[in-house]
Write a structure and sequence with these properties.
The longest helix is centred in the middle third of the chain and has 9 residues. Strand 1 and strand 2 form a beta hairpin. Strands 2-1-5-8-9-4-3 form a seven-stranded antiparallel beta sheet. The chain has a two-stranded antiparallel sheet with strand order 6-7. It is α+β, with helices and mostly antiparallel strands.
């Protein structure tokens, strides 16, 4: 479907229901649960914004790959998302542990067949959040007490799949 046809409240989709951020290709990918992000229009194109901390195993995959997916699931998959957010791909095969079935929505990406909505994104820009740039320092101190600032990835939404 066209990005403009995405249904749903992005505040609920991202902040309450969560999603999986996945980067890499079959046999060499990782996924993690995201709860911070944004959808919008920037640089004359539809974009998705995802945040990944450098300590996460997925970080290496988002760094080395030009593409990533954001996958949104039905509420019945909440425990799978919780598992993918609290276990590292360094230690466990998250797809095998949750029963999620990986597939390639495009040759450069991986997502999961149980997703309701998949955004295939091409990286346009990435940068680290910087403590000195917070205009409200309380956000930095509350969200980054360990100084492990996220890297922000802005991706052009190149393809949208509404599943089922």
């Amino acid at each position: 479907i066209a990005p403009e046809s995405i249904e749903g409240n992005p505040f609920e989709m991202i902040g309450r229901k969560w999603f999986l951020i996945t980067a890499g290709v079959p046999g060499d990918y990782n996924t993690m649960t995201g709860g911070w992000g944004a959808l919008g229009y920037l640089w004359n194109r539809p974009v998705a914004i995802a945040y990944v901390r450098p300590v996460r195993h997925t970080f290496n995959f988002t760094e080395k790959n030009r593409w990533f997916t954001l996958s949104f699931f039905p509420e019945s998959r909440r425990e799978d998302l919780r598992f993918c957010g609290s276990n590292s791909g360094r230690d466990v095969d998250k797809a095998a542990a949750t029963g999620l079935t990986p597939f390639q929505p495009t040759p450069e990406t991986v997502s999961f067949s149980q997703a309701e909505l998949i955004l295939v994104c091409r990286k346009l820009y990435a940068h680290f959040l910087k403590p000195a740039e917070f205009t409200d320092p309380s956000v930095d101190s509350a969200c980054y007490p360990r100084h492990d600032h996220h890297r922000v990835y802005i991706g052009e939404i190149a393809k949208v799949l509404r599943m089922k």
